[in-house]
Amino acid sequence: xxxxxxxxxxxxxxxxxxxxxxxxxxxxxxxxxxxxxxxxxxxxxxxxxxxxxxxxxxxxxxxxxxxxxxxxxxxxxxxxxxxxxxxxxxxxxxxxxxxxxxxxxxxxxxxxxxxxxxxxxxxxxxxxxxxxxxxxxxxxxxxxxxxxxxxxxxxxxxxxxxxxxxxxxxxxxxxxxxxxxxxxxxxxxxxxxxxxxxxxxxxxxxxxxxxxxxxxxxxxxxxxxxxxxxxxx
Length: 233
Description:
The protein is mostly helical and about 230 residues long. About 85% of the residues lie in helices and about 0% in strands. The protein has helices at about 1-25, 30-55, 60-85, 90-110, 120-145, 150-175, 180-210, 210-230. The longest helix is centred in the C-terminal third of the chain and has 31 residues, at about 180-210.
């Protein structure tokens, strides 16, 4: 349980650190775009190696495909709703998107920690951290234009607490769930991650980082592969 708490604190703490970065020390857009693409590359690997591939060992390809498609569809519908109500590129929209994406991600993280050592979930935890940091920075910077810094920090801290609770819940409440249901949960989370990459992460990375986003994506992918090899060792 201690390891679960430590990993959850590191991952969700990225939201708070990102908010501090966005409010008090914003980086040039090209640097931010590079970091977003880096996170995207890492998430490609993590979605496959830490979520989809383990599920394939527990259930059929058809159920995996349906679950991934369902997770992607749910995220896209929720993202469309956020875009219509809050504005996709607004700070509030980014906050809502991170929350919608983060709940299944963190549930999956909690599930992945069941019976696993710290290195076995290093790729997934590290990739979520890399993803949360620049996204929180961008959202907090936009929100700080219309709200006080204290209000913005409070919102992002509350979001970090919510996502931490999701990871702990996944670890504590889903330990007795059958392998098939765990596989479905992992694939729903993977579908949400994949959809977020296509609709939010990579468009933002290219918009702000231009062609360097291609290099950053490859670097992020290689970093995640390295973490995965470390976890498998």
